[in-house]
Structure formats: C-alpha cells, structure tokens
Specification:
Distance between the termini of chain A: 30 Å
Helix content of chain A: 40-55%
Number of domains of chain A: 6
Structural class of chain B: mainly alpha
Distance between the termini of chain B: 68 Å
Largest sheet of chain A: 7 strands, mixed
Helix content of chain B: over 70%
Radius of gyration of chain B: 26 Å
Order of helices and strands of chain B: HHH
Strand content of chain B: under 5%
Oligomer: heterodimer
Chain lengths: 824, 70
C-alpha cells in the first residue's frame, strides 16, 4: 500500500515547484501547492503576465503565510518614506528596494514589467547582482506603501530595514577604483607606445627633438596616474609612517616616488628617457589587483546589526489611536502595540494582554516564555499569539540587547589589519631594500661617484614589491570566490588568510550544530491510530507555539480537519474537538493533575483523547548531517568548544560527539558567550566562532573569524566575517584546508617574487639598470605571479577531492542518518 | 618625419575618446550589474493579448484596403 502511494507521484506546483501533496489547489487546470501560489498565478494570469512561467520552470517564490498586511504601514509616514527615496520631484519618486527573493531571469522579467500590474509604476530596473530593483513611480497613482504591498502580493517581499537606510554611502567606492584603473590603463598604454623606440636597437639614432617630445609627453601622461590613480598608495603609506608602522604600501610608495622623481629628472635634464612606462605599469597592475580583491559579494551583508533585525517602525498608541512611529523616536513611557510575530524593539513593561515571548534569537533558548501584565520584557523577543500593549522603559539604543553591540563598535578594526601576513613581511622587506640600496650607493661612492645615486635609486625602483603586493590579493581573492562557489561566502579576502591561523573552534548549539527548525520527534505510549494523528495535526494547525509548529511539520502528509471549541492556554497546552473526540495536547499538568512531570530535561508534549492519556511526544534536537564526521576530522587539529544558550538536556548526546566535557557550556547568555571567546583569546588562541543568531552576535564579532550559518544567505545573519550555507556545514574542515593551501600558494609566490627581485637587484647594484630591463622585469614578474596564483588556486578547487564533495555528501547523509539513530 | 607629431596628436585624441567613453559607462552604472543585461536582451517586447488582437485587426484592415486599391 505504501509503495502504491509512492508510485503515484504528486504533482509539482506550477508556481514554486514544491510538491503539491495529495490535495493540490487547482486553478485553470493547473496544480498549485497552496492558495498563496495560486493567487499569484491568478493575478499574473489576469494581467496576461504568464510569460513569467516561460523563462524558467517554476520560478515563483512560496510565501508561507501572507502576513504582510500591516507590515508596510510605516511607509505611510512621510518622514520614513523620504529617507528611502533616491530621487523625488513633484509626483515622481525613485526608490531602490532590496528583494532577497530575486533569483532568476523570470524574476527580472516580471519585476521589470511591474508597470502592467500598476499604471503608477513608470519604470523598473533590476540589479541582479545586488538583488535590488529600482522603481520610478508616480506617487499620485501609487503610494510607496501600495508599491511595497504590490511587490509582496506577487511574493517579492522587499526588505526595508533601518540599516539599509543608512547604507547608501559606500556605493561610489567601486566606481572610483574603476575610474582610476581606466585612467591608469590609458596612460600606461600611451606611454608604452611612446617609449617603444627605447626598446628596439638603434634608439640612440633617434633625433633629439623626437626624444624631447616623447619625454615631455610621457611626463604629462604620468601626472594623472601619479597624482590621481596612485594617490591611495601615497596616502596609505604616509598614514602608516605617521602612525609608526610599515605596511606594504610603504615600499611601494618608495618605489613610486623614486621612479617619478628619477624619471622626471632624466627627462628635464635630457640625460635619459626615464622609467615612466614602469611607473604607470606598476600602478595599473596594482589597481587591477585591488579591484580583483574588492569584488566581494554585493548582495550579502556582513555588517548587519540589531538595526536590520528590528522593524523600521512600530504602532504607538496615542489617545487610544494607533499611530505608526519610527523606532528611533520611541521614548520612555510610550505605549506601543505589538501583534503576533512582531518584535519588541526596546526593554519595556507589559501593560495589557498575555505575552508569550519567543527569545530564541536573543538567548538561544527555544521555548517561549510566558509573561503577565506588569512583567518586564526585554528587547529582541518576538510575541507569539494575541496582540499586547507595552510601556517603553528604555530607549532603543540603551536596551540590553543593543548595548551588547555598541560596546565594541570600533574595537579591533585597525588592530586586525596590522597582523596581515603581507604587512609583517613588508617591515623586513623595506629595511632590507633600503640597506641594499645604501650599501650599493656607498660602494659606488667610493669607486665611481657618478653612479652612486643611480645605483641607490635603481635598487629602490627594481625592488618595488609589485609582484609581492599582487600575490596575496590574487591568491586569496581567487580562493574567496572558489569558496563562494562551494557555499561559504567570505567578507573579504583577508578572511581566507585569517582562517589559516585558527587554533580553536567554538560552536553555538541551537541552530548551528542542530537544525533550527527541525526537531526529532518520537512518541511514547499507546500505538497512535490514524485518527489520532489527524487530530494532532488539526489541533496544532491553530497554534503559533514552536512545539505545535514542529508537530505540525512532523505530520507532513496528513490533511487536517476542522476543529471545534479550539482553546489555547499559554504555557499549558491546546485543546479542541476533532471528529467528536475531545483532544488535549500540552504539558503533563495540562492533561491531568495525576501524572508526574517526568524528570528528564527533554521537551515532552502529552496527548489525551476523551480524557484518556495516550502518551507523550518527545521532541529533541536534530543534529546537522555530517556533524560527527566533521567533529572527528577537526578534533585532531583544533580545540573544539560548544557554548549553548539552552539548558543541558542535550549534554549526553553532545558528550558522545565532543571529546572534552569541560569544553561544553550550557545556559550561556549572549554576554557569557562573548566573555568565553575573550577568555580564549587571552590565552593566545585564534578563535573561530560559528553561530547563527543575535545571541551569538557578540561572540561572532569578538572572535578572530566569526562565521554565521544561514539557511538562506540573503536573509538575516548577524554581523560576521563569513556566511556559511547551512547545507554545507559538514564541509567546514574542507574549507579550513583550502585556506591552508591557499596560504601556501601565497608563500610560494612570495618566494617567486623575491627571485625576480634578486635578478633585478643584480643589475641595480651594478648601476647598469636600463629602462628596458626595468620595463620588462616589472610586467613579467607581475603577470607570471598572477598567472601562477590563479592557476594553482583553481587547481586546488578542481582537484578530485572537491569533485567528490558533492558525491560524498549524499553518502554522508546516509551514514549520518544511521549514526544519529544510534545516538539517541 | 614631423608628420609623426600630427599622428601622435590624432592617436591621443582617438584613445582619449575611448577613455571618456569608458569613464562615462562607469558613471552610468554599466558595470554595476553584469548579469541582468544579458538576460534582458532575450525578453520579447511585452504585448498584451488584447493589444495583439487589435494590432492584427488593424493590419488586416490595412491589407484588405490595399487589396481593394489594387
């Protein structure tokens, strides 16, 4: 019988591609998995926009419940809306909205045809890389709120958060770099052309007025490169020297300055043609390296803090009426209204209604907390259930949660830069180069005074660490992109370097090594009949409690039936009548006074039918697949720790996985976690922290490398150095080894670039460095280093090991499943 | 040989034109999104079914008129 069911395949939703189950919603002879999807289809069908379904199959986005009704009410506030516009004049408004759901060409097509759905939209353009749509609209015909709701109605829900409002500034940085590259490239090319006579034999026969002309042309062409394109290096080096440290920009600047002044001197005195070609080439290649390094993931945000987690506005009660107010304007004493699933923005006191607060994102504790009128409620909790009224106790920025963030706003930033490998090397490099130059200068001073200055400057010119400066950006930048393809997104290429020096790994428990929304459910007691299961499913459908949701999810294929007399007692349980039987589901106390609460710390949900206790469901955490293999492979190389905000009910299971019991800590508040990391760092450990929620935010920030794990990388993740796709969690060990290998590549290319330098120095110290040797050596060394690093890093990625990742993954999950059965 | 001066001047002008073109393209945001233009070019101009019918009708009328004339 069971086999039969498998054979008759369920239909796939035309809109989103999900399994429709046994009872698809039919419309226009097409199957949909839910009403939401079919509504979108109907809307598109009415407007003849069904081309949407032609580009990609099942392009739509499934939205579990349509709870955007009041979500965009705050956009009616002119003050908030003003901040969002890119442009506004008369009735015309232009706005860029971040829509994480953008994922395919159908999305682009539909969003760019918005004007068909509403005449008020004048033009819409998608930026796929940033997952943004910029919309020009007529505010007379469609308000910004209506626009946001229109997008939501086709399931492209825009994400409008506080920090997005403040994020608009750093857009131009990338453009500036492109300008600089363009100008440097232009000047480089032309100078090469004008210097060509120098490269071929017989250049000494060139008529002198040509020589002068070419020299002057070169000089004028080099000015924009020297003053504009290369200005960042000069500034950075100047800053570094001022703060009494030496970074890679110092020797580069030394080279640039010597090249510029030596060449200018030669040109104006007519003693030579200078090295302008080398100078512009150097800056051009360096800028390309910088550009390559800067190409990070634009659509991902690594800087998110509480502001992007909090809503932009809340409903404030003013003289009995609801007013939408931006949360930064909330003051102590204000009364606010919080609905089901809404966030509490500030520490406050409950004044009306019963609260069921889910603090899971703040503390890691997964069970909601029940609060009565008069109780204090902390910011960051989420109300589950009916609406409540709160009186604000503290300003948003002063609440317990937000303070955790503010305390280390600026720390670490500067300091961490200093430790990068390349800067450590450049300190010695600069000293050695100056020493060699001085030595050569002094030697020639004694033998041939005319060559002394030239020998000194030649050393500085030829030793300019162009290849050295390029090797790290290219090797690490490429590693970063390769890792991105495998499922871990680094904030910048320096993170790839930092991963290499990690000695200690700290895991958060809930949501990191366990699956956040999936629980392992088993039933103990009398055999459950089909009727019982239907009853449980029907009852849990009406409750927002996390345990109900888990049970509801557990019985996927069951069709719920109607429930009469549904009742929910907060922190007790739910009851109702299904098929003329009284069903009660909840804590032991709720079901019957008689049964004793079991002593185990796992979560139990009791079930009774018509007053007879059937037994209880046990809900326990489901560990991520591949966990035990991962721990096995990591434990030999790293110190492993687990810190959890939850109680210690899982201790037994964790002990089977992690070797050292003293490294497992329970009941840790966000602050405890932060302190734990700091204590490890004080012991000179390089700490990698992996977490998922706001409760880990402090720890993620203070660790050397903070990785946040997310099911959907475009949705909220706390500020971190890298975002890991949760499905790729089991490959963490692999990622660490890639970073190790790429550091090796950087080291090898360092050696290579030193070899080039030795060749150059050989000419330089003899005082015979000709412009052509300098001009040839520089691009050859740079290009070969770039080629070497990119080819080798790609080879790492293409090596068999990696191809096997995906294959192994499937096998692994099978093994893990078997293992996890043993675990429990 | 002095024609070289002219040639270099001209070549600088041409190259400068390309530089200005590049800078303009950067400024206009042509390098901001390298994916969607490649998809966008494949979209047909949108035409509602009703419009299509109307257009076909007018085209038919035109051809019939033409036929009448001839």
């Amino acid at each position: 019988m069971a086999k039969m069911q498998q054979d008759t395949k369920n239909e796939i939703c035309v809109h989103c591609g999900d399994d429709c189950g046994k009872h698809p919603v039919m419309w226009d002879d097409k199957a949909f998995c839910c009403n939401g999807c079919s509504t979108v289809y109907q809307l598109l069908h009415e407007n003849e926009l069904c081309t949407y379904y032609d580009f990609e199959s099942n392009p739509g986005i499934k939205v579990e419940s349509a709870k955007y009704k009041e979500k965009f009410a705050f956009l009616d506030e002119a003050e908030i809306a003003e901040q969002l516009y890119d442009f506004s004049e008369g009735d015309i408004r232009k706005i860029s909205l971040y829509i994480p759901a953008i994922h395919c060409s159908s999305c682009i097509w539909l969003l760019e045809n918005l004007s068909i759905l509403n005449k008020g939209v004048l033009k819409s353009m998608v930026n796929f890389v940033k997952k943004e749509v910029s919309i020009t609209f007529n505010s007379d015909q469609i308000s910004i709120r209506a626009l946001a709701e229109l997008l939501s109605s086709i399931h492209y829900i825009p994400e409008i958060t506080l920090d997005k409002l403040q994020e608009k500034q750093n857009k131009d940085v990338n453009k500036k770099l492109l300008y600089k590259i363009g100008i440097a490239g232009f000047c480089f090319g032309n100078i090469m052309l004008l210097s060509l006579p120098e490269y071929v034999p017989g250049s000494e026969y060139l008529e002198s007025h040509f020589k002068d002309f070419f020299g002057m042309m070169n000089f004028f062409l080099v000015l924009p490169v020297f003053l504009y394109s290369g200005s960042d290096y000069l500034k950075s080096a100047f800053k570094a020297v001022k703060h009494r440290f030496i970074n890679i920009d110092v020797p580069i600047t030394l080279g640039i300055l010597t090249l510029f002044f030596q060449s200018s001197f030669e040109i104006f005195t007519g003693t030579g043609s200078g090295y302008m070609d080398s100078l512009t080439g150097l800056i051009f290649f360096l800028l390309i390296g910088k550009w390559y390094q800067n190409r990070t993931y634009q659509a991902l945000s690594f800087e998110r803090d509480y502001r992007s987690y909090f809503p932009v506005a809340v409903s404030k009660m003013e003289a009995g009426e609801e007013v939408s107010i931006p949360i930064e304007k909330l003051k102590k004493g204000d009364i606010i209204l919080i609905r089901n699933q809404e966030l509490i923005p500030a520490d406050s006191i409950l004044t009306k209604g019963d609260a069921q607060i889910d603090y899971s994102f703040v503390t890691g504790e997964s069970n909601p907390v029940f609060k009565e009128a008069g109780d204090q409620i902390f910011a960051g909790g989420k109300q589950m259930g009916s609406s409540i009224e709160l009186t604000i106790e503290k300003d948003v920025v002063q609440s317990r949660l937000t303070q955790l963030w503010n305390q280390f706003e600026d720390e670490n930033r500067e300091a961490s830069r200093l430790h990068s490998m390349i800067d450590r090397i450049s300190k010695y490099f600069t000293a050695i180069i100056i020493a060699i130059g001085a030595f050569a200068g002094i030697y020639w001073m004694m033998n041939d005074v005319s060559k002394a200055v030239f020998a000194f400057t030649s050393v500085l010119i030829v030793a300019c660490p162009c290849a050295l400066a390029l090797s790290a950006p290219f090797a690490l930048g490429n590693t970063m992109r390769l890792m991105g393809r495998l499922g871990i997104y680094l904030k910048g290429s320096d993170v790839a370097e930092k991963l290499n020096s990690i000695t200690t790994i700290v895991f958060d428990k809930t949501g990191t090594i366990t699956q956040a929304d999936e629980m392992k459910i088993s039933f103990k007691g009398d055999q459950l009949t089909d009727e019982d299961i239907v009853a449980v499913k029907s009852l849990t459908r009406h409750s927002t409690h996390i345990l109900s949701a888990s049970l509801y999810e557990h019985f996927k294929d069951i069709t719920p039936e109607t429930v009469e007399n549904y009742q929910e007692l907060p922190s007790m349980g739910i009851s109702g009548r299904v098929n003329n039987r009284d069903i009660k589901l909840g804590s032991a106390k709720f079901i019957s006074e008689g049964i004793a609460e079991s002593k185990s710390l796992t979560t139990e949900v009791y079930l009774s039918v018509d007053g007879n206790i059937k037994g209880h469901f046990t809900l326990s955490n489901q560990y991520r697949s591949g966990l035990s293999e991962l721990i096995d492979s990591l434990s030999s190389k790293y110190d492993l720790h687990v810190i959890s905000g939850d109680n210690d009910s899982e201790k037994e299971n964790l002990l089977k996985l992690f070797p050292d019991a003293s490294n497992i800590k329970f009941d840790q508040s966000p602050n405890d976690k932060l302190n734990y990391i700091n204590r490890l760092k004080q012991k000179n450990k390089n700490v990698l922290m992996i977490g998922d929620g706001l409760n880990d935010a402090g720890a993620l920030k203070s660790s050397d490398v903070g990785i946040s794990i997310a099911d959907d990388v475009y949705h909220f993740s706390p500020a971190c150095d890298a975002i890991l796709e949760s499905s790729k969690f089991s490959q963490l060990a692999r990622f660490l080894s890639i970073s190790k290998k790429s550091i090796w590549i950087v080291k090898i290319s360092f050696v290579l670039s030193f070899l080039y330098n030795f060749v150059g120095l050989y000419f330089a110290v003899q005082g015979v460095l000709s412009p052509i040797v300098a001009a040839l050596l520089m691009p050859i060394s740079s290009v070969s280093i770039v080629a070497f690093t990119t080819v080798t890093t790609n080879m790492i990625a293409k090596s068999k090991e990696f191809e096997n990742i995906s294959k192994n993954n499937n096998e692994l999950t099978a093994i893990i499943k078997a293992k996890s059965v043993q675990l429990n | 040989m002095s024609v070289l001066f002219v040639l270099i001047g001209v070549s600088m002008l041409v190259a400068g034109g390309f530089l200005v073109g590049f800078l303009w393209a950067v400024k206009k945001g042509q390098y901001d999104d390298s994916y969607s233009p490649s998809v966008r070019i494949l979209f047909d101009d949108h035409e509602k079914e009703t419009q299509k019918v109307e257009r076909e009708q007018t085209e038919k009328e035109k051809t019939t008129k033409k036929n009448h004339k001839s």
